[in-house]
Description:
alpha/beta; six-stranded mixed sheet; two-stranded antiparallel sheet; 8 strands; 23% helix; 37% strand
Amino acid sequence: MKAVFxxxxxxSVTVDNRVIGSIGDGVLLLVGVCDxxxxxxxxxxxxxxxQLRVFxxxxxxxxxxxxxxxxxxxxxSQFTLCANTKHGRRPDFFxxxxxxxxxxxxxxxxxxxxxxxxxxxxxGEFGADMKVELLNDGPVTIILDTNExxxxxxxxx
Length: 157
């Protein structure tokens, strides 16, 4: 699984001119479910997202997690994160999991965020044409990729 993690002061997602998810301080998370991803990777990614210390403490050091600040997460499924851009100028998306696999795995990932203690998790609408707005705080933007973690040590055991 791949995710783009953005620390935000606010974010929202709109479908058909209707806001379906909106948060204040917390994380906007764009999530790509790639071919071969599993529930185990979804669980590891959820724990990492919940525990990643990117919010400032009283000394202005990034030392607090979204859990520590009682922040929110807006998770938006985005298959384009699994794009292959190696050849030519048009990406292919053959690396993205089929929607019949990706949607349940995305939903499981969201459940795991809640199980990790994130009390307010909002989502977009899987497969919809979504408009995402955010005010990036910092800016702090981090790329998370469970396939890269497999090459090294596994986080959040």
